[in-house]
Structure formats: structure tokens, C-alpha cells
Amino acid sequence: MSTQQRRERERAQRHDLIVKTARKLAESEGWDAVTTRRLADEIEYSQPVLYSHFAGKDAIVAAVALEGFTELAVRLRAATRTGEPRTALEGLARAYMAFAEENPALYDAMFTMAVDLPFGQDDTPEPLRDGFQALLSGVAQFADGRDPAILTEVVWSALHGLIVLSRGGRLPASGREARLRLLLDQFSATR
Amino acid sequence: MSTQQRRERERAQRHDLIVKTARKLAESEGWDAVTTRRLADEIEYSQPVLYSHFAGKDAIVAAVALEGFTELAVRLRAATRTGEPRTALEGLARAYMAFAEENPALYDAMFTMAVDLPFGQDDTPEPLRDGFQALLSGVAQFADGRDPAILTEVVWSALHGLIVLSRGGRLPASGREARLRLLLDQFSATR
DNA sequence: TCATCCGTCTAGCGATGCTAGAATCTGGAG
DNA sequence: CTCCAGATTCTAGCATCGCTAGACGGATGA
Predict the structure, then answer these.
(1) Class for domain B61-188, per CATH?
(2) Fold topology of A1-53
(3) Which B-chain residues 41-60 have CB contacts (< 8 A) with chain A?
(4) Which listed residue, of A2, A68, B24, B38, carries a Cα 20 to 30 Å from A17's Cα?
(5) Under the phi-then-psi rule, with left for phi > 0, alpha for psi from -120 to 50, and beta for the rest, what region is A3?
(6) What pLDDT digit, counting tens, does each position of A149-180 carry?
């Protein structure tokens, strides 16, 4: 009976190996380099093994994304644990942008690629829920009469827009800080 | 000598036919359906003909995107020709979102796919420049002390974020109007 | 010791973007 | 009107992609 457990343990390890390898590969050479053949090579197994763990390549990307949500939630919570609400928004925003900048491929998997992750639904995976909750609880501190959920969604959208447009070369790298400052100013004003 | 001109005219027509067909196909069945084979079928020529007009598939997508920028600029200018600055921002934002909603595939080509279009550079194509100018001149009306360029970039980012997150199912379709209202409120406040 | 079964790999399918070389058509000279 | 030269278009194929069927192998239990 013990061999059965060992088997399952090894399977779980290989599962993690696949996810971690995919992530590392994507981060170092971009998602285009993450082909099933290359990934299989990297983990030193053949392609079909991947499909015994995941339904397809999309599922692997989704698994990587899920890891990302967990990490993002941790970082956002850490950032919101500071003092006053004014700096809380700034900390939150900076933490979010830093995360996106440090893990571009991961961020892509989370917010631009994997379409099959159910976001605001009943079967939304825990890490996803947690990520949004971290944002929400941070933003709610200075909602000041405004609807916290709506406010969170808009702040999030603005940050995401800045990130994704910057990355694609649509926004000049120079004004980064000025844009963030303006955004923070606008959203701390209750009006 | 006339036949030479006719040749060139026909070439130009076929060039347009390719772009228009790619756009229509993308809009009706998504960009995944726009394969070189399918596109060649649709225009009733063989694949290599495409490559006598464009360097590759990316160049075709870029050509479609360019069309989009021209149209977007026109719509934005029309929207900003209204009266007071308060409603100008709202008109601008609604026009932008309506454009994105009515032409999802086109919008994708403009702002998420084609990476090879030089955006804020010296060799930026005219339609691109014009598109941003239309936004800028609209936003500048109510800048009210704030840096117009920075303000434009941030407003644009926020709108883009809303659009792209909504489309990917990351934001619920329900709060659409509320989010837009909140965004408008925040950005009309000068503070 | 042997048969069974689970796990893994080899080999291959259809589809992709792109291209070389054959085939065809066009236009102008004799 | 004929025929050749040059441009144009097509057929066929390459490498690569995600994915899978079926052969193969070794570990497990009788």
C-alpha cells in the first residue's frame, strides 16, 4: 500500500515540476518558447506525459496563472498592512505594478492569456478569489462613500491598462512615475 | 504604358481586398480563424500571393490595425465636438468604449496583438499619431492644470483596462455603467 | 516464475506560417 | 498571326505546432 502513496507523491512532484518549468521557461524566453516538445525536453520526459497531468497546454498556462494569483495576493496583503489610507492606496498600487514588472510572463498568463479561468463565478478557484479580495480590502479602506467593489474594479483596470500598454510599447517608459502619481491623486479625491 | 498603371491599380485593389477580408473574417470568426490558407481561399488566390503584398501574417494584422486607428480618430473627433468640457470627457470615453465594443477584433489588432507598430516614435505612422492626437485634444479641454499628455495616457489606460478586462471575463458585465460613471467622476475632479 | 497491467515512449496526424521551383499567362517583336 | 521573354501565380513541400494512438517496457501481485 505504501508504493501506492509513493506513486502519488512522485506524480504530484512531477506535476509541480511541469508548472515550475513552464513558468521559468516563459519568464526567461517568453511564452512562445513554451512548446509542448520543449517543455517535455526540459522536464526530461516525453510529450504525452504532459497530457497525463493536464488536459492541454492551456491548462498548464492556467496552472501557472493560479500560482501567480496566490503570490500576488500575498504581496498585496503585505502592502496594505501599512498605516494611513492615503499611503495604503499608493502601496497597493506600487506593489501591484512591481509584481507585474518582475513577473511579466506570469502576469500575462494571469490577465491576458488563459481564458478558461472562471473569474467572478461560483466555481472560481480560491487563489483567484483571494487575489481580488486582497485588492478589495486594500481599496475599501479609503472608499469613503464610493462603492468599494466598483472602486476596486476601476482602480484595478487603470493599473492593468497602464501595465499592458506600457509593456506593448504603447506608452513611453519615461512618464511611468508621473502617470502613477496622477492616477493616485485622482482616485484619492472623493468628490 | 497604360497596362502598367492598370497592373498597379489592380495590385492596390487586391491589397485592400486582403486587408478588408482579414478584418471581416477576424470580426466574424475571431483572429484564430484568420489563417493564411483561409484568407487565400476567401480572396480566391493562393497563399503565396499574400506574401507578395505583405511580409507575413503580422504585417496583415498591422494593416488592419492601421485602418482601425483612422476610424477611431474620426469617431473621437466627432465625439469631442460637443459643448462643455464635462460632457466632452464623457462623450470621448463613451465613443472609445463603443468603438471597442463594436469592433472587438479590430480593437485587439490595434491594442493587444500587433507588436511591430512603432507607437511613440519618430517613424510612427500617421493614423496612429492622429488617433492619439484626437484623444489628447479631447482630454486637454478639461486638463485644468494637469499635464494634458499624462492625463490623456492615464485616461486611455483606464479605459483600455476596463475594456480588456471586461472582454476576458475578468470583470462582470453587470457593473459596466457604474464603473464608467465612477471613472468619469474621478477624472473630472481636479483636486 | 510468470502473466498482467500500468506507465512511458515512439511515431504519426492534421494544421500552422512560410517558400522554392514549376507552370501559366501576358504583352510586345518579328 | 506567331512566338518568345518576362512577370505572375500556383502546386507542392518544409519545419513546427498541439495532441494522440498504439507499441513497448518494467514493476506488481499470484
Answers:
(1) mainly alpha
(2) Arc Repressor Mutant, subunit A (1.10.10)
(3) none
(4) A2
(5) alpha
(6) 999 999 999 999 999 999 999 999 999 999 99
